[in-house]
Structures are given as C-alpha cells and as structure tokens.
Amino acid sequence: MAAETSLTTEQIWRAVAAERASLVELLRSLPENDWDRASLCDDWRIRDVVGHLVMPMRPDIGWILVNLIRARGNLARLIRDTAIRHAQRRTNQQLLAELRDRIDSRLTPIGTTPADRLMDMLVHGQDIAIPLGITREMPVAAARSALARVWEMGAPFHAREKFSGYRLVATDGEWAEGGGPVIEGSLADLLLLTTGRHTSARLTGAGAAQWISTQRTRR
Q1: Domain of 114?
Q2: How far is CA 80 from CA 62, 96, 154, 218, in A?
Q3: How much is the pLDDT for 180?
Q4: pLDDT, position 68
Q5: How far is CA 5 from CA 87, 121, 144, in A?
Q6: How many domains does the chain have?
C-alpha cells in the first residue's frame, strides 16, 4: 500500500537539508570521546559515520578506480574504508564543519538519486543517535519516502527479497508491503530493519517473532 502522496524532488532536498542541520546541532553538543563510540553501523564509529556523510559527492573516475582496487573490487568495502580514512585525517571539529558546509548541497554521487541521500541521512542519523541513547525523531513523510525507496531499490539492501513471505506494516503512517505473517513497527523502525539494523525489540506482530527466531538460528 503506497502513501497517497509522495515527496517531490524539492521536498526531498529540503528534508535532506533539515536532517543535516539537525545532525549538526546534535554533534555540536557531543563530548569528544563520544565521537569514538561504536555506531549502529557495523565497523564504523560515530566519527566514521560522519566521515561517510561528508565524503565528496562527485568523486572523479580516478579516485573511484584507485579506491575500488584498494577494496579489491568490493563496493561495500570501498564505502566502509574510504569513510574511515576520511575521518582519520580530520579532527571532530573539522568533520563537523564539513557537515555544516554541506547542509544545502544538492549533489549526488554517481548512480544515486536525491531519495538515496534522504534515506542515507535518516538511517545514519539513527546510527549515531541510538548508541548514544539520544532520541532522534524521524519525520513521517520523509521516513515513508525513504522506506519506499529501500523497498524498491534492490542492492545493497535487497529488502523485498529478504522479507519475502512477510508483510511489513507501519503503525504510524500509510505504508505496507509484502504478504504473509505481519511485522509491525513505526516507519523509522521498519526503515532501520530493512537497511539491516537491529530494531527487533520495537517490532510487533506474529511475523516479528518469526523473523527474530529465524535470525537467531542463522547466527
């Protein structure tokens, strides 16, 4: 079930700018040692997540090829390692300044869309906030747009395939997809779930218990 309305490109970019601005405010108040705490994103500290968010939006082909070779052709490793290296070369305040400078940027990396930038900001904002015990509200319209994008996009999350046999239902917005035992949660929690984050404690429905049991068996 799709939402009655979708965000326009202009609305998406405004939402991206709002997420960046609010994340700057969150990071400004962080003690220095919190920047080195583990994020919700595997292998990244808080500062590495910020490093990823401020990476150049339009890298040249030479940069891509060099770093792809360093990552042995693995795109996920390229994204992980370049963010870590970027963060290592900068102080916390330099990373914060770079994020502040990009608040109104509307550039997109090769092969991505404005909707991907919004999804990235929403998810990584939670990657930072949740481990710190900070409540970071996710706007309903933005979360619904990002969740729809994740569901339709295939790689890297393959959400539609991964949750085949389940029905995902948002409890705070008009969004539902799939068929089978129901997994219910807020738009924010479903977005985190479909992008590989562990939010099982906040999910309900017969499908949630089944999904959690399946994941435990696979570990």
Answers
A1: 9-132
A2: 18, 19, 19, 24
A3: 97
A4: 67
A5: 38, 21, 10
A6: 2
State whether residue 68 is helix, strand or coil.
Answer: helix
Instruction: State phi, psi for 183 to the nearest 5 degrees.
Output: -110, 115
**DSSP-H helix ranges across the chain:** 9-28, 46-53, 61-70, 75-88, 92-101, 114-129, 140-153, 159-162, 187-194, 206-218
Top pLDDT among 74 and 120 is at 120
Q: Are residues 38 and 123 in the same domain?
A: yes
- Dihedral pair phi/psi, residue 2, rounded to 5°: -85, 160
Q: Is the pLDDT at 79 greater than 90, yes or no?
A: no
Q: What is the pTM of this model?
A: 0.91
d(CA 174, CA 4): 8
Q: Tell which residue, 77, 152, 62, has the closest CA to residue 113.
A: 152
